[in-house]
Amino acid sequence: MAGEKLITGSWDKTLKIHEVFSRKLNVETLEHSSEITAIAVHPNRKQCAAATMKGEIYIWDVEAGSLVGIIDSEIQGGRSYFSKISADNDKSTKYIKCL
């Protein structure tokens, strides 16, 4: 169980890597430019991806805690039939929800 990690993302614009079975509090904080909406971990557990409200996807090296790269995407949202806000101005539907 040594080296098991828990990765969390938050609306405070941080991705945190927690050492699950460590006897001391060992959390690595990785900063993002916007709120995190989704996280995916590579099957080899060495990399993870975090999507943000701005439509960016950050790729991280989990072991080193370093940024591998950023993929910038264009987010296009829709709108509800009953919405009084135009799709161009409705920020509640414009973000990556799943990786």
3D architecture notes:
- There is one protein chain.
- By secondary structure, the protein is an all-beta fold.
- It has a single domain (5-93), classed as Thrombin, subunit H (Beta Barrel).
- 0% of the residues lie in helices and 41% in strands.
- The chain has no helices and seven strands.
- It has strands spanning 5-9, 14-19, 27-31, 36-41, 47-52, 56-61, 66-72.
- The strands form two sheets. The protein has a four-stranded antiparallel β-sheet with strand order 4-5-6-7, with no helix packed on it. A three-stranded antiparallel β-sheet has the order 1-2-3, with no helix packed on it.
- Strand 4 and strand 5 form a beta hairpin.
- The chain starts with a strand and ends in a 27-residue tail after the last strand.
- The mean pLDDT is 79.
List the helices and strands and how they pair.
Elements: E1 5-9, E2 14-19, E3 27-31, E4 36-41, E5 47-52, E6 56-61, E7 66-72
Antiparallel strand pairs: 1-2, 2-3, 4-5, 5-6, 6-7
Strand fraction? 35-45%
Poorly predicted regions: none
Kindly state the number of beta strands: 7
Distance between the termini: 27 Å
Spatial sequence of strands, sheet with the most strands? 4-5-6-7
The name CATH uses for the topology is: Thrombin, subunit H
Number of helices: 0
Outline:
This protein has 99 residues and is mostly beta strands. It has strands spanning 5-9, 14-19, 27-31, 36-41, 47-52, 56-61, 66-72.
Using brief descriptors, characterize the structure shown.
99 residues, mainly beta, Thrombin, subunit H, four-stranded antiparallel beta sheet, three-stranded antiparallel beta sheet, globular
